């Protein structure tokens, strides 16, 4: 029912992530959930005007305001950004009206403190992506990286580093850094969660460390 548009890639995180990445985005967000749920959100200049979501396994079938509220409250989503032209936006809006998927009067939620902190780290020069994860699963992410594949391994690596520093009586572990000619990978504890950062080879580790320290201190 929707125009094909042009794919701009995939994002992972709450819908509020898009507000920091592309606040005036016009197009569709094609949503896929691990449990099999699928849906979409339509935006024009960053404002939602259509939404739908279906999860046959969970017995959920929503459209319009109900679908958008449901998706807005999800802590993390995987969605593909599909850019639309003005004509494609017109077609998508007409299709939403016809199918009863129009969104009206739903306010967008501000980013959570954790998401705001991740966005601040992501703005550091050279940072490609940053994620907050726990028990091997990415909870919130900003940027273009598939943290789902590395979250469990990264968490195990951080635990192993903590054991090594304890055995060597070096004090508590603050960060683990992996460097290759193609980039840097930083993992750090964040209370009962973990921060994972992918950066370019010339990214400043000092600035990244400072951002991580500020995030941990603000969490208290």
Task: Give a brief rundown of this model.
It is built from six helices and eleven strands. It is an alpha+beta fold and 220 residues long.
Walk me through this protein's architecture.
This protein is of the alpha+beta class and 220 residues long. It has 2 domains: 6-99, no CATH class; 113-219, Dynein light chain 2a, cytoplasmic (Beta-Lactamase), CATH 3.30.450.30. It is 32% helix and 35% strand. The chain has 6 helices and 11 strands. The chain has helices at residues 16-21, 65-73, 86-99, 113-122, 151-167, 205-219, and strands spanning 6-13, 27-32, 38-44, 47-55, 60-63, 77-83, 127-134, 137-143, 176-180, 183-190, 193-199. A 6-stranded antiparallel beta sheet has the order 1-6-2-3-4-5, sandwiched between helices. The protein has a 5-stranded antiparallel beta sheet with strand order 8-7-11-10-9, with helices on both faces. Strand 10 and strand 11 form a beta hairpin. Helix 4 (113-122) runs antiparallel to helix 6. It is elongated and about 65 Å long. The termini are far apart.
């Amino acid at each position: 029912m929707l125009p094909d548009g042009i794919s701009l890639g995939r994002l992972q995180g709450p819908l509020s992530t898009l507000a920091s990445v592309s606040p005036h985005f016009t197009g569709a967000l094609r949503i896929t959930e691990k449990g099999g749920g699928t849906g979409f959100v339509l935006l024009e200049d960053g404002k939602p005007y259509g939404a739908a979501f279906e999860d046959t396994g969970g017995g959920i079938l929503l459209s319009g305001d109900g679908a958008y509220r449901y998706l807005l409250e999800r802590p993390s989503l995987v969605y593909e950004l599909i850019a639309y032209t003005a004509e494609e936006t017109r077609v998508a809006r007409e299709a939403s009206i016809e199918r009863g998927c129009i969104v009206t009067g739903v306010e967008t939620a501000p980013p959570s403190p954790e998401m705001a902190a991740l966005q601040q780290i992501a703005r550091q020069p050279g940072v490609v992506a940053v994620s907050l994860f726990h028990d091997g699963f990415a909870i919130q992410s900003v940027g273009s990286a598939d943290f789902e594949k590395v979250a469990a391994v990264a968490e195990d690596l951080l635990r192993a580093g903590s054991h090594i520093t304890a055995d060597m009586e070096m004090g508590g572990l603050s960060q683990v850094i992996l460097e290759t000619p193609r980039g840097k990978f930083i993992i750090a504890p964040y209370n009962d969660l973990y921060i994972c950062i992918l950066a370019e080879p010339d990214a400043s580790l000092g600035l990244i460390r400072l951002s991580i320290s500020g995030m941990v201190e603000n969490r208290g």
